[in-house]
Amino acid sequence: MIQRPRGTRDFSPDEMYRRRQVESIMRQACKTFGYGEIGTPTFESLKLFTEKSGEGIVKQLYNFKDKGGRDIALRPELTAPVMRFYVNELQSFPKPLKLFYFGNCFRYEEPQKGRFREFYQFGVECIGGKGEAEVIALAVKILEKVGLKNFELRVGHLGILRNILGNVPPSVMTIIDKKNFDELKEKINEEKYKKLMKAVYLKEEIFEDEKSKGKELDDLKKVFEKLKLFGINKYNIDLSIARGLDYYSGVVFEVDCPDLGSESQICGGGAYNLSELFGGEKINSAGFAIGFDRVMLGLENEKRVFGKDKLGVYVIPVGEEAKNKCFEVVSILRENNISSDVDMMGRSIAKNMKYANSINAKKVIILGEDELKEDRVTIRDMETGKQEKIPVKNLIKYLETGKIK
Amino acid sequence: MIQRPRGTRDFSPDEMYRRRQVESIMRQACKTFGYGEIGTPTFESLKLFTEKSGEGIVKQLYNFKDKGGRDIALRPELTAPVMRFYVNELQSFPKPLKLFYFGNCFRYEEPQKGRFREFYQFGVECIGGKGEAEVIALAVKILEKVGLKNFELRVGHLGILRNILGNVPPSVMTIIDKKNFDELKEKINEEKYKKLMKAVYLKEEIFEDEKSKGKELDDLKKVFEKLKLFGINKYNIDLSIARGLDYYSGVVFEVDCPDLGSESQICGGGAYNLSELFGGEKINSAGFAIGFDRVMLGLENEKRVFGKDKLGVYVIPVGEEAKNKCFEVVSILRENNISSDVDMMGRSIAKNMKYANSINAKKVIILGEDELKEDRVTIRDMETGKQEKIPVKNLIKYLETGKIK
Fold first, then answer.
1. Between chains, do B311 and A34 touch, taking CB under 8 Å as contact?
2. Which candidate from A2, A45, A51 shows the least CB-CB separation from B278?
3. Residue B205 burial by CB count (10 A; 0-12/13-18/19+): exposed, middle or buried?
4. Tell me: the pLDDT tens digits for A254-285?
């Protein structure tokens, strides 16, 4: 038996049905906000990701040389590909250019709950304009619309953090991002540490703090004002959001689903500058990525009800002669967009009823010699057990309205 | 500037809008036929594909060693992954098990029109039962429903071909599949060649041909009878369909879109046995894969009309004071699932109108000092140019019904 690769998943019809529902709600929410969907390749030049995130990222990548000797990597995230696409082909589009995507990403890391080697991200990029508040609002609306109940939004500002810290190596930012404050104490001087700790715990009061005042705090204040206009009133200030990467420039945010334990972050984003790095003109952008699989886990934890993908009608022939008529009947149903199926195994009625049950058929049609003569079908509701004989010509009307004639 | 890898594509919002429409119609058609969607990983163990197709396939694959030293390949097709999933986890499901998928595949080959290194396949597998006729009918229905006009279905039978040829190496099957009959002449003896040529050109008359009679021809006959019951009357018999691979066992079929020139095949499939090869119990299956990108090319050639993904309303503030109200208005619209956007660039009215035009907004709302005082908005239809003043509280009703009060 050949196993699927470690850290990857297969999705059964039930799982795919749930995932497609959630994906569709997310897509609809983005369209409501005026975003258009784009697609990019699954692999990119390795350089795209090392330019953005540094050589350190390579150890987490699925990278390889293709048969032409090119250094290739499966994408670990989608912001860099989207910005590459933007710089190559979309720079002349009217601004703001509002784009969203849903795609698979890959990281070579130890699999655990909520962490897979192939995982799915749903995200947006708003290129041009002051999009920070809107993308935060959109992220929250998406999570609300898919039905997630317990999640927390935290908003910070990298400028405030950098004003306090001055120039620090990226590793320090990573330590802050992980909230390892004990470790941090050994890496920066005491004065900075105290200032940082004060800022981290200030929360709302920071807007009253004389020493913090400046452009960055005004920025943050405006974002909160806009969030309220967008109907978002539940948020926390968190100045310890560092997001590690240099191209984030201002307001940043994260969303957690606390029920998920150690892998609780389900969304992250903020304002960034990335197009220059890829050879484009400088343009302010804002975006986020939602960890689609973690949202699915969160919804599962909260026992979100999805319903089942039920078959409309299962058609059972009784006797050899009725078979052809059954194929005709199922064709009529399908032409009318009623999901339906017909016995292809030559089973007995009892076994066919069992099969109909196991695939969640809503109704069963039984068609034997008697029905064939009368050009009727016997139709049974699998939930109520109610059974009626219907002329074939009235079948669609009956299924749509419940009326026999 | 970093380029995207050779043979891959980026999809703009307009292209994605068209692709998602076609995908959605295909998905709906499969559900109508009682198929459920599944998903599998983008990469698999290399062995999965060499077991199925032989070592020869490696030169066409994106294969590499992962950081754990495992031999991995990006999937070149989806039948092997689906059957691997079936053998590992789905064998106990009731039969027939009707599955469909939509996914990206990868082949390292020279890019040309209709041939990409990352391409998309939409396909089905019917595991258990006599599914051949149904999958052929479904393939045709899918192509009809997406609106493709000019395509041709050819149906053959590998058993008939093998009875004529006896044991021949796979390379001979490939030659037949490519219809290189001149080259074939040199590879097999004259008697076989004559028989084969006769069979290839026999078409419908083969059913009257005494020498061809047997189980295989009966099989084929039954499939045509069923196809008629499913409403499929347009098909050609083509006994030269060889499909190269050993696991195909009986009825096989292909669909061409002649307008596409040298890469005209848009669908291929048939009956097969594959689960044994992957360690499962023997079970008859049937399936097909549609080349999604080629179908898109075919639709483009035929100038299929898709419409545009238009924004419902674009909101323009006039003056500083109206800005906050504009954010509120756009939030109300979005809460009511009306796709809408608001100026984020601080542009003039004229520039905003130009932007609204460029993003295909159906309506524009103008909100200035006067409107603010009256708690109204001015709303303009971008197609007719008609302009009206509406109380904010009646806005949703107005957009839904066209009535002002």
1. yes
2. A2
3. exposed
4. 999 999 998 899 999 999 999 998 999 999 99
